[in-house]
């Protein structure tokens, strides 16, 4: 089951540049507590992003990325502490609720689509960094900002790819310093790396060839469906 989840999450990441860690964590939490699922998802997220770096570096919006990273770095210590100390029965529904709210906000389109200024980027980075570290759910805060930032689709995707690489890497460092990582988690991540990378490569191949829906609809709809399923599972236990 974990193998299929890793492949599917990699497929989404390769196609959209977004969503791997959150989808992987939601899938792993079917069997594992959040304190184990989140680190494995983040390890795989960093590994899967390797093939996306070259294209992302050519189109990234450097100024927006820099401001996002400032906010993210401020959030990592608090997120690591929350993941370490909050019990699993609180963390699991919290992850699902964060993803659900984020998906609904991504889908929401205001009647007047006024672009959000670059000065707000650090707040988006702060929210995304906190959610990434404690729940691997940093995608919604970032995408809500980027989808309303005025960036074109290529810049948006490239900026998201590089931000998630930095955010997941910083979160792993914070979790390592907090003592959350161990050998068993690294072994599980290694077992799932190949299917995740295979899905990632397929997603990259599909992206320029098949785009049936706007990125906002695709990402938001996927978030809502997966988070609803996860939340229902938690509430029915």
Automatic annotation (TrEMBL):
It is found in: Cell membrane. InterPro entries: TM_pro_TauE-like, TSUP. The keyword Transport applies. The chain crosses the membrane at residues 38-57, 64-84, 90-108, 120-147, 159-181, 188-207, 213-236. It is a multi-pass membrane protein. GO terms for cellular component: plasma membrane. The keyword Kinase does not apply. Belongs to the 4-toluene sulfonate uptake permease (TSUP) (TC 2.A.102) family. This is Probable membrane transporter protein. It comes from Ectopseudomonas oleovorans (Pseudomonas oleovorans).
